[in-house]
């Protein structure tokens, strides 16, 4: 009997030892299960390795996606040349935003009138006419007819052709109008078809025709007053197109001023900052430059200057990040050796990098009034001769 009780007691103790630890009220083990040291170390190493692998996997997927986009863009541009045309014109970029182009006085131009001209059916261009500062008091509250008549006063006129993006109300453009007005010039600036509040679709031919229409409109009202053409950036392409056409019909302007010009649109596109990531891409010209030509966009300044017969002034900042300085210098060298300029002054004015004028701040130069006075004074003398 004693042996039986002893065996029962032993079996009970064994069962108690083999039973799991009792649960507390929260249904958790009272005693935590501990892994052997070697197993714990292995589990601890797996966690960071897993995280690293997941991060590398996501990074690799992102790189593959970016590479796919990088390769797809050239084919997309080639198949849709209109994309490249949009990037050349950038007329959909309206900076500054939320300005009323009908109210130039909101931009500090209290002696400016807003017009609308119609170069051809279905096309309307918005124009700002800023009178010389000397006429500021007389201009206050006057209507369009008074401003048109004022073009016949004894003050020279500058037709300003702006570059891509923005409108005639762009900040740096407005500041240039003020400088020129203070020097005694009428300034007529307009938005090409498709820019600002002008109606129509942009094209090189259309932009040139708009400029021709505005020039003829000025000449019909300015009498014998000198009329100069000033083009900036992409506007230099419009300017040389216009002046070449005017020279061919024997009605040249009194002078041409090119600010930050390029040689032709292909060389400019190849040198533009946007093209850096694709400049060494196989077939770059075929993918990116040929579609520009296919769209009818050339802006061949280097060819146009060979047919221009009027004084030429080129202004270019050495630190220009958009149109490289060497393109402006190259255009000057072409013009200076052209037979069409043999009886006219051709001048190149560089602005040192330290001045920080970059692509659109040459108007800040304190030397600009003297440069224009000396150059345009000589041009007026040549005109009267």
UniProtKB/TrEMBL annotation:
GO biological process terms, semicolon-separated: monoacylglycerol catabolic process; phosphatidylserine catabolic process
Instruction: Extract one GO molecular function annotation from the record.
Output: phosphatidylcholine lysophospholipase activity
Q: Can you give the residue ranges of the AB hydrolase-1 domain?
A: 156-250
Q: Which GO terms describe its cellular component?
A: endoplasmic reticulum membrane
Transmembrane parts of this sequence = 55-77
Where it sits in the cell: the answer is: Endoplasmic reticulum membrane
Question: What Enzyme Commission number(s) apply to this enzyme?
Answer: 3.1.1.23
Q: What does this protein do?
A: Lysophosphatidylserine (LPS) lipase that mediates the hydrolysis of lysophosphatidylserine, a class of signaling lipids that regulates immunological and neurological processes. Represents a major lysophosphatidylserine lipase in the brain, thereby playing a key role in the central nervous system. Also able to hydrolyze oxidized phosphatidylserine; oxidized phosphatidylserine is produced in response to severe inflammatory stress and constitutes a proapoptotic 'eat me' signal.
Its protein name is Lysophosphatidylserine lipase ABHD12
Q: Which organism is it from?
A: Apteryx owenii (Little spotted kiwi)
